[in-house]
Specification:
Blueprint: E1 3-4, E2 10-11, H1 16-25, H2 29-33, H3 37-65, H4 68-98, H5 110-120, H6 122-133, E3 135-139, E4 154-158, E5 172-176, E6 184-191, E7 196-200, E8 203-206, E9 209-210, E10 234-238, E11 243-247, H7 257-260, E12 263-264, E13 268-277
Antiparallel strand pairs: 1-2, 3-4, 4-13, 5-6, 5-13, 6-11, 7-8, 7-10, 8-9, 11-12
Helix pairs in contact: 1-4, 3-4, 3-6
Length: 289
């Protein structure tokens, strides 16, 4: 129960459980509840700085550093962010537990806590940072891009890459699957608008010339005739305006433009950049191309 003092202020003991719960929801909020405004601000700012650094490393770090050392830096920042979050919870609890009594500050109001929660919640900030940076993480669930990408690879995609440029032949893009726009697919652009594309006995031709495809893997030596199955023989097709023809690198095991048609420009989400984690450590930090 609060006590009213002669000065008109209110003394009210802090509840450690409430302090820790507030810190779980938003780092620094528990410290604010405990009357440690500067401490809470420091914790929140440190968390934001680490979050920004992680996203900067995700988008640009491999360009500068390349390879495993860069991934180690990214992982250190991630561990530091988790450690800061845990410290923030314990710290808020201990401050509240040790306070015999507490004189309420002007900011110790429930609507101030709600305002801080709404403006500075880490989930909202993470979404905002991701939107600002245009960075998204994906995990490769299937083998249709083997050997370039294997099952379990974790990759970074730049969702703002094509805001000022168009996809080029050879780019590996993330796009909304035309048959189910709720799902994201990842394939390689083989032909762009205006191109004539066809395949003859597994060899792909663009504008009458065979495409050099060192990234392609074939796992089935048999040839499927055209007309009944477009896997090995299809076309020629002219790629319409603002459309793209995409194929998987694991050519005999990929469900792609041969079966469901072209990708519309407006369905393209971004460009795949780097592998930031993989079970095969030699693949970590590898540029996707």
């Amino acid at each position: 129960m609060g006590k009213t003092h002669d000065q008109g202020t209110v003394s009210k003991k802090r509840n450690p459980i409430i302090a820790s719960l507030l810190s779980i929801i938003t780092p620094g909020l528990g410290q604010l509840y405990d009357g440690r405004f500067k401490r809470g601000l420091f914790i929140w700012t440190a968390g934001l700085t680490l979050t920004l650094l992680i996203f900067l490393l995700m988008k640009y770090g491999f360009i500068v550093f390349h390879g495993l050392p860069q991934v180690a830096i990214w992982m250190i920042c991630s561990v530091a962010l988790i450690g800061l979050w845990l410290f923030n919870i314990v710290d808020a609890y201990l401050i509240a537990h040790k306070l015999p009594s507490f004189t309420l500050k002007r900011y110790n109001k429930w609507y101030i806590y709600l305002l801080v929660l709404w403006l500075f919640n880490p989930i909202m900030l993470t979404v905002q940072v991701k939107t600002m940076m245009g960075v998204e993480k994906y995990k490769i669930p299937s083998g249709n891009m083997i050997p370039t990408l294997v099952v379990g690879d974790h990759i970074i995609a730049d969702l703002k890459y094509y805001e000022s440029d168009k996809p080029q032949r050879g780019d590996i893009i993330v796009f909304k699957y035309p048959e189910d726009l709720r799902r994201d697919f990842l394939k390689r652009v083989i032909a762009i608008e205006g191109d004539v594309i066809e395949s003859k006995n597994k060899e792909v031709y663009v504008n009458g010339k065979p495409v050099n495809e060192p990234y392609v893997q074939h796992t089935d030596s048999s040839i499927h005739p055209g007309g009944t199955d477009p896997r090995d023989n299809f076309g020629p097709y002219i790629v319409p305006k603002e459309k793209y023809f995409v194929l998987g690198d694991n050519r005999d095991q990929s469900y792609d433009s041969r079966y469901w048609g072209f990708v519309d420009k407006n369905q393209i989400r971004g460009k795949a950049l780097y592998i930031y984690w993989s079970k095969e450590t030699n693949r970590i930090g590898k540029e996707i191309k």
